[in-house]
Specification:
The complex is a heterodimer of chains A (495) and B (228).
Chain A: H1 18-38, H2 40-50, H3 54-70, H4 72-82, H5 84-102, H6 108-137, H7 142-150, H8 152-184, H9 186-192, H10 199-202, H11 210-223, H12 238-245, H13 254-266, H14 272-283, H15 288-314, H16 322-339, H17 346-409, H18 413-453, H19 461-474, H20 480-494
Helix pairs in contact in A: 1-6, 1-7, 1-8, 1-9, 2-3, 2-8, 3-6, 3-17, 4-5, 4-6, 4-17, 5-6, 5-8, 5-9, 6-7, 6-17, 7-15, 7-17, 8-15, 11-19, 13-17, 13-18, 14-15, 14-17, 15-17, 16-17, 16-18, 17-18
Chain B: E1 2-7, E2 12-19, E3 30-35, E4 38-40, E5 44-46, E6 49-56, E7 63-70, E8 74-82, E9 93-96, E10 101-106, E11 113-120, E12 123-126, E13 136-142, E14 145-150, E15 159-167, E16 170-181, H1 184-227
Parallel strand pairs in B: 1-8, 9-16
Antiparallel strand pairs in B: 2-6, 3-4, 3-7, 5-6, 7-8, 10-14, 11-12, 11-15, 13-14, 15-16
Classes of the chains: A mainly alpha (495), B alpha+beta (228).
Family (chain A): Belongs to the major facilitator superfamily. Monocarboxylate porter (TC 2.A.1.13) family.
Transmembrane segments (chain A): 17-36, 57-78, 90-123, 144-163, 175-194, 256-277, 289-305, 325-344, 350-368, 380-402, 414-436
Region (Disordered) (chain A): 215-235, 445-495
């Protein structure tokens, strides 16, 4: 009989079917981010039709955005329980149903429900699982994969904007919503591509020894749903059950907390400049089409910046220090806003838009990659849910606060200064705290290595399992590339 | 030459000023204000600006007023004094059978009365809401806005509608084109896209089943080779 193939189950494929998964994620993420923005074209007509004020109609977008981010934890729980594929397909169905029923709405309240809640919830069920499954299919090439997938947002926006205009001119808002409902059903196609991956597909059916079983179990807790752990721990209470699906212990995770605080702060100034760029341009006397063109420049630069950032972030110089790169991108973004009031002419605003597009793309490309880097692929599912619901508040507050600043002072520059200052602050905070985090992680890694090499430590089955668990829970940055080097050194010492 | 629209909603006094840019090549020009062929004397003059004062009390006082500056070359600017324009929708309004159509007519100033007409062939038929209360509803949420709602649409309701606002010094008109579509219009692309989704999902699932079977077949072969 063959000896125990007690090695780890194969890691993420980093290619193969992963590219199809990436295509699906590209679509899904694109719809989730671009669809709410693309709806703005219909608002004037809907406002006239129902006889409401513009802000009442704009609530549709806000409810949609709030639901997409606020339903993050629910999305995470569902993915932890069922995996990405069913959740995304259900999300696609919800989006379709939401928009189709919106086509038959007879009041603005019904629109809030159909477009705001139902479609918003469907998009939430699309966004999170897509980001999660990238972490399951890619490791070595994950930053590139993240950059490419996030590029779906500007690409989809550039496609949806003229498409929506065309639909509106030919079918009015009702017909357009009906057709958009069908288009959103394509999220189900994206979901179909999300073939499940994990220990279930990779287990090797050969006789294994006790140690082999440990190693495999350890790997299972890294890849698949985290259901196997509590088996030996006896009865679970309600809190533990929730914790099984949504990992609240993340709040004790140093890296997660740093990311959470930094990002929540950053989002306060992230979206407002985009919302007010065109109005600001018109305010300085630029005509409507040139002002809209600024946003197009932003979108095109964004589109190119995201995969490029992914490639840079994947390089061997940047990847181990990706948190610094992320902090730099945020601070760079803030610096752009601080310098914007100095741009007085149209060409100045074009330069600003280009740099803003670049900075925006850089931040977005690494938004989820850095979180994955900090908490690891296994806990990412819960992490992303908890992060999005926290960001939900500041995302919704950002543009209205900017609006209040503009109305109070009658000048756009205070809004830019506020956004720039907040982002530079967030970037600096993340930079300093991640420096601290990297050092603490290096220290812990050293302690762990000295403990492993200590021959006197008694290893029971439980203890070795505990070590595995500690590894997968406190394993900070995915030191895979670095760890391989370390193991190589160890082999040389032992061999 | 330079042109400017000056909306005049009600009788008022208006000052029109032509200012010469300091960097201009024209020095000490001879300035005349004209309306058509009639010359108007200016009331005030500074080294580079010339002003006339007009009292607009009836519609004959509206029109185009020009200031002409003559020197080595001649430059002019025109002011169009007119009744305020009203804003409608230039592109066709798309609605569906059985639904309601809403046409909103807006102006920045206060209009005295609003009237709506629909075209029957070549004639303009006024829409009187008292007679057709269950079909047409005309509302004015504010003095500068008028809404026409047409309920229970049919294909015959499509066509051109006119909105007219009456001001003290005249009236202003704008045109709407109403198109009534049947549900079959958007339904065709809808069904096409849904079909595409179903086909793609089925294809992806079938491909997955097929590749899994191939893999199982390969694994069986591998096991058999091992046992040998």
């Amino acid at each position: 009989p063959a000896p125990a193939e007690a090695g780890r189950a194969p890691g993420p494929p980093d290619g193969g079917w992963g590219w199809m998964v990436l295509l699906g994620a590209f679509l899904s993420i694109g719809f989730a981010y671009a669809f709410p923005k693309g709806l703005a074209i219909f608002f004037k007509e809907i406002q006239g039709f129902f006889g409401t004020s513009y802000s009442e109609v704009a609530w549709v977008s806000s409810i949609m955005l709030a639901t997409t981010y606020g339903a993050g934890p629910i999305s995470s729980i569902l993915v932890n329980r069922y995996g990405s594929r069913p959740v995304v397909m259900f999300g696609g169905l919800l989006c379709g149903v939401g928009m189709i029923s919106a086509a038959f709405c007879t009041s603005i309240l019904q629109l809030y429900i159909c477009v705001g809640f139902i479609t918003g919830f469907g998009l939430a069920l699309n966004l999170q699982p897509s980001v999660i499954i990238i972490g399951k299919y890619f490791l070595k090439r994950r930053p590139i994969a993240n950059g490419l997938a996030m590029a779906g947002s500007p690409v989809m926006l550039c496609t949806l904007a003229p498409l929506n205009q065309f639909l509106f001119e030919n079918f009015g808002w009702r017909g357009s919503f009906l057709i958009l409902g069908a288009i959103l059903l394509n999220c189900c196609v994206a979901g179909a591509l999300f073939r499940p991956i994990g220990a279930h597909t990779a287990l090797v059916k050969t006789p294994v020894t006790e140690e082999g079983k440990d190693a495999l179990k350890g790997k299972i807790t890294e890849d698949g749903p985290t259901e196997n752990k509590p088996e030996e721990e006896g009865g679970k209470d309600c809190f533990e059950k929730i914790n099984q699906y949504l990992d609240f212990s993340l709040f004790k995770h140093r890296g997660f907390l740093i990311y959470l605080i930094g990002n929540v702060l950053m989002f306060l100034g992230f979206f407002a400049p985009i919302v007010f760029l065109a109005p600001y341009a018109k305010h300085t006397g630029i005509d409507e089409y040139s002002a809209a063109f600024l946003l197009s420049i932003l979108a095109v630069v964004d589109m190119v910046a995201r995969p490029t950032t992914g490639i840079i972030a994947n390089s061997k110089w940047v990847r181990p220090r990706i948190q610094y790169f992320f902090s730099f991108a945020i601070a760079f973004n803030g610096a752009c806003h601080l310098l914007c009031p100095l741009a007085s002419s149209y060409s100045g605003l074009v330069v600003y838009s280009s740099f803003f597009g670049l900075a925006f793309g850089m931040v977005c490309a690494m938004l989820f990659e850095t979180l994955m880097d900090l908490v690891g692929a296994a806990r990412f599912t819960s992490a992303v849910g908890l992060v999005t619901i926290a960001e939900c508040c500041t995302i919704l507050l950002g543009p209205p606060i900017g609006g209040i600043l503009i109305d109070t002072f009658g000048d756009y520059k205070y809004m830019f200064i506020k956004c720039g200052a907040v982002m530079v602050l967030a970037g600096t905070f993340l930079f300093i705290m991640n420096y601290y985090n990297y050092r603490m992680l290096a220290k812990e890694e050293k302690e762990r290595k000295t403990k492993e090499e200590d021959p006197k430590s008694v290893r029971t089955e439980d203890e070795s399992k505990k070590n595995w668990n500690k590894d997968s829970t406190q394993d900070g940055p995915e030191l895979e590339p670095l760890r391989e080097k370390g193991e190589g050194v160890k082999k040389e010492m032992n061999g | 030459s330079v042109e400017k629209d000056v909306p005049v909603p009600s009788p008022t006094k208006v000052d029109l000023t032509c200012k010469l840019d300091e960097n201009s090549n024209l020095k000490n020009p001879e300035v005349t204000w004209k309306k058509g062929s009639e010359i108007i004397p200016h009331i005030s003059k500074t080294p580079n600006s010339w002003t006339i004062q007009l009292t607009i009390s009836d519609k004959y006082h509206l029109g185009s007023y020009t200031c002409i500056l003559k020197g080595e070359k001649e430059v002019s600017a025109v002011f169009h004094l007119q009744v305020p324009k009203i804003e409608g929708k230039e592109k066709p309004v798309i609605t569906y059978e059985g639904d309601k159509a809403v046409m909103v007519c807006k102006t920045d100033y206060n209009a005295k009365t609003w009237t709506w007409h629909m075209t029957n062939g070549t004639e303009l038929v006024p829409i009187v809401k008292i007679l057709h209360a269950d079909k047409f509803q005309i509302m004015s949420p504010s003095a500068g806005v008028s809404r026409l709602e047409i309920l229970k649409l049919t294909k015959e309701d499509g066509g051109v509608y006119w909105c007219e606002a009456e001001f003290d010094l005249g009236t202003s008109k704008t045109r709407f084109e109403l198109r009534v579509l049947s549900i079959a219009g958007p339904l065709k692309p809808f069904i096409a896209i849904v079909t595409e989704v179903v086909i793609l999902v089925t294809a992806i699932v079938l491909y997955e089943v097929y590749s899994k079977r191939k893999q199982k077949g390969r694994e069986k072969e591998f096991d058999q080779i091992e046992q040998l």
